[in-house]
Each structure stands twice: as structure tokens, then as C-alpha cells.
What does this fold into?
Amino acid sequence: MSVVGTTPFIKPMTSPSSVSPGQRRHTLPASEFRPLNTQDAISVFEIEREAFISVSGDCPLHLDEVRHFLTLCPELSMGWIEEGRLVAFIIGSLWDQDRLTTDALTLHKPHGSTVHVHVLAVHRTFRQQGKGPILMWRYLQYLRCLPSVRRAVLMCEDFLVPFYRKSGFKVLGRCAITVANLSFTEMWYPISGHAYMRRNSEAIRFPQLTSPLERPGTAGERTDT
It folds into this structure.
């Protein structure tokens, strides 16, 4: 699946420039959102490993799985970059069934109309700043630009359900997937209509939400943040 046209939701968020007219600028954008690629895989995995190993003893996606999805469907990922550093990310893939099954953890279904959000994670030094909800908001708006996408789904631990509700997700019920001794709630978000386009997308106000761990359960887990 290819990304349609120009998507302002991936535009850099830049701070007002202090460079005088005519002076050449050499600094990186203060903040930007962009799709990830395989060169980002190690940075992604390091953030994910730190976020999950101490909590659940395992990562939602191992390094080879991160590379797998960033090879097959990089357009369904989003990274938040600040001054050249990855501070938060989401990885997704396409799914073609009404509910998640174990195959959804490793497969990308190119003809599917559902985006499975595998993982949302925030670097430890940037947590408790509302970055998780802001990144999810940007991601969901971005998905509206993809004509074949009809909804997003994720699985999370029960304590993260309120966090995802605030982002607009609705409960589908208990997820059929279990990981070790963990069970999950499956949630979904309708993707319909067109994203509201603005020339200055950085002027859009973001919801100021915070999650307990700035991570989605399995999407803070195997959707995991």
C-alpha cells in the first residue's frame, strides 16, 4: 500500500526561526514526524526494550520483527524526531479480519483495510510529557489520508483501556491472543472521511493527555507502547 499524495500530518513541526534574513540555516528541524525505515530499527528496538522488558519481561516486537514490518510496510509507521533523535514511535501493519489472531502479530496483509497498531513507545527521558497521546493523534489523522484504511485496532492490558478511550478507541472485547501469562483487551478506532488539511499543520492543537507509562498495553505491549 502506498501513501497518497502529500500528507501535511508528516510535516516537520519547527520552532520559530531565529536566523536572520539571508543567513543560511544548518540546524535540524526542532521536531518532525515521519515514516520509519530499516535504518531506524535499532533505535526503535532500544526504546521498546527499555519500555517493556522491565514491565513484562519481553518486547512486543523483537528486532527482526521490527525490521520485518519496516521493510514490508514502512508507511504504516511513524516516528517523532527531535533534533535528529527518535523520541517516540508507532509501528503498524495491515490486517484483513474482523478480530486479531496470533497471525496478526507477525503478518502484514497488503489487501487488508484494518491497521493493526503493534506498538507505541516513548523514550524514557521523554515520558510524562504527553508525547504518547500526541503521536497517536497524529498517526490516526495520517491514516485518514490512506483511502483503503477503514479502521485501526490494537490490543492492550486492561489498565490502559482508559488511555486509549481518551484517544477515541472503543472496546471490542477480550482479545483471543495471550502472551505468556498476559491477556488483553481488543480495541478499535473508525477511520472514515478525510483528514482536515491545514497549511500550517503545526498550528493544530493536540490533545493534552497522559498515560500511566506513556505506552499502550500491548500497543503499550504487543501493540505495545
In short: The two ends are 24 Å apart (CA to CA).
